[in-house]
Write a structure and sequence with these properties.
With about 250 residues, the protein is of the alpha/beta class. It is built from 9 helices and 7 strands. It has one domain: 3-Layer(aba) Sandwich (Rossmann fold), CATH 3.40.50.720.
Length: about 250
């Protein structure tokens, strides 16, 4: 799964799943762009980890929800590093609350970052991929987009929307040898899940056939595979990484 010579960009790459994906891509040989919005120190920590592992990378700050910022950042990357051939749309936020009480701003913020952000970033890189006749776009969705979850109508809608976006993009870009796929994590050990009580964690594990939470590295491995040359005949698909919690299509 060598990615030597490829330039990759991971949105929301400074922490959690994004950090693991950055490390995985770098270990496979790619030069990795680590995107962040405000936490530059976390992005620099990730870059340090990439370099300590013998990989190459750089940090790039921009908000995926702001179209002009995205376009300017992509132009800068491609002028300095080369054409982005691997894009991982990982940036995401939550603004949880029951629908009856949810503010419009909480809906808009989540949809703008989690769904529109993937559209905007993909649109900004796809022309370069099409010209090279090679590219990989991987959208990080979620088991919540398939199961739904009370208190997360905005998040579930955005993550489900990524699946439809992925399938449509896959059909449009296949003629240029650009594949578009999803990775759908289940419950993964991150800062967010570590804050859950032991009781809630056990309730979650009881819903998972493998009876354990996943790791960011589990998600990274699936992502690196879909970014590799070996996945060239896979497009428009969702690879579920959830321990068996959801087994649908």
């Amino acid at each position: 799964m060598s990615l030597k010579g490829k330039v990759a960009l991971v949105t929301g790459g400074s922490r959690g799943i994004g950090r693991a994906v950055c490390l995985g891509l770098a270990e496979a040989g790619a030069t990795v762009g680590i995107n962040y919005v405000s936490n530059e120190s976390a992005a620099l920590e990730t870059l340090g980890a990439v370099q300590d592992a013998g990989g190459k990378g750089f940090t790039i700050g921009f908000d995926v929800a702001e179209t002009t910022s995205v376009q300017d950042a992509i132009k800068k990357i491609q002028s300095e590093e080369g054409v982005i051939e691997i894009l991982v749309n990982n940036a995401g936020i939550t603004r949880d609350g029951l629908m009856a009480r949810m503010k419009d701003a909480d809906w808009d913020d989540v949809l703008n970052t989690n769904l529109k952000g993937a559209f905007t970033c993909s649109k900004a890189v796809m022309r370069g991929m099409m010209k090279k006749r090679w590219g990989r776009i991987i959208n990080i969705t979620s088991v919540i987009g398939f199961l739904g979850n009370a208190g997360q109508v905005n998040y579930a809608a955005a993550k489900a929307g990524l699946v439809g976006l992925t399938k449509s993009m896959a059909r449009e870009l296949a003629v240029r040898n650009v594949t578009v796929n999803c990775v759908a994590p289940g419950y993964i050990v991150t800062d967010m899940t570590r804050d859950l009580s032991e009781e809630i964690q056990e309730m979650i594990k009881a819903q998972i056939p493998l009876a354990t939470l996943g790791t960011p590295e589990d998600v990274a491995s699936a992502t690196v595979y879909l970014a590799s040359k070996g996945s060239g005949y896979i497009t428009g698909q969702t690879l579920h990484v959830n321990g068996g919690m959801y087994m649908g299509n």
